[in-house]
Amino acid sequence: MMKMFDLSGKKALVTGAAVGIGRGYAVALAKAGADVAIVDVDDKTGPTTAKEIQSYGRDALFVRCDVTKKEEVEAMVEAVAQKFGRLDIGVNNAGIGILGGDVDFSLQDWNKVIGVNLTGMYLCAQAEAKQFLKQSPVQGKIINTASMSARICNCNASYNASKGGVVEMTRMLAAEWGTYNINVNCISPSYILSPMHASTPLEVRARIRELTPLGYVQRPEDVYGPVVFLASDAANYVTGLDLLVDGGHTLNAWLTPLGRAVPPRVSPAEETVQLKHDLAAMGLPFDDNGINESLHPEIAGAFKAAFGIG
């Protein structure tokens, strides 16, 4: 049974893999046996993550790539395939968010979010599929990062529309490319403690715990199992799936905190272990709670305003 989840000998790439969710995907695939290419625009931290993958006894490389540029995406996939000899798994995770209300949200910012989160993901999936078609046997696994924001209204129109688009794009590509034995699925995380949320105040983390049935803020480690499953033979008959990995957060539509009968599996201190690792890898300072408000002051400011924090 365990061989169904064994990725030994598989060749993978992960975009947005320098830190956070993408790094989590890369580590999970490597621990399951795959060689992994770290793809990112962060050419400072990306090579460090590639070395970390190598520490697990896997082959790895860093490729700098702006996923909004078709020629860079195609060159990136070609470079990975040349290094590894082929490509078996494409994990498309690169994404951004820009805060702001929609009355005044600029077209430039709208295009930037859609360009990275949706168009960039499409370009990567397309290039990966073309690589799969060159190989024998023709087959492959594509895994996209969507978000629970495809189902709930918790950010703004640009971000939520981009993630809703990822879900439906995934379904369409799965329907179209199944004829080539290409599985296309997506993972939808919740509020995950990547460096993007290093500026999230403690009061916000506490509220997330209150409104999440499993009782803790999501970590990159919480997507290890889902990504390995979708990349493995265990998911050979799974395609077009949006795998919601949110601790039950989107289940709560009631007016009061859910409460707990027993302590959650993960403590607040344990939540931040990987976040602190990522911040340290980026050479950034942080406090005991893994907070660095200067990293994303717009996030800190928005949450403080919303929660009335002085």
Describe it for me?
This protein is an alpha/beta fold and 310 residues long. The protein has a single domain (2-196, 218-250), classed as 3-Layer(aba) Sandwich (Rossmann fold). The chain is built from ten helices and seven strands. The mean pLDDT is 94.
Please state the overall shape, judged from the principal axes of the Cα atoms.
globular
User: Which residue ranges are poorly predicted, with pLDDT under 50 across at least 5 consecutive positions?
Assistant: none
Class of secondary structure makeup: alpha/beta
For the record, the count of structural domains works out to 1
Any chance you could write out the topology, listing elements then pairs?
Blueprint (H helix, E strand, L loop, with lengths): L10 E5 L4 H12 L3 E6 L5 H9 L5 E5 L5 H15 L4 E4 L14 H28 L5 E6 L11 H21 L4 E8 L12 H9 L13 H8 L10 E4 L22 H4 L1 H9 L15 H11 L3
Parallel strand pairs: 1-2, 1-4, 2-3, 4-5, 5-6, 6-7
Helix pairs in contact: 1-7, 3-4, 4-5
List keywords for this structure.
alpha/beta; Rossmann fold; single chain; seven-stranded parallel β-sheet; 310 residues
TL;DR?
By secondary structure, the protein is α/β, with parallel strands linked by helices. The chain is built from 10 helices and 7 strands. The chain has a single domain, classed as NAD(P)-binding Rossmann-like Domain (Rossmann fold, 3-Layer(aba) Sandwich), CATH 3.40.50.720.
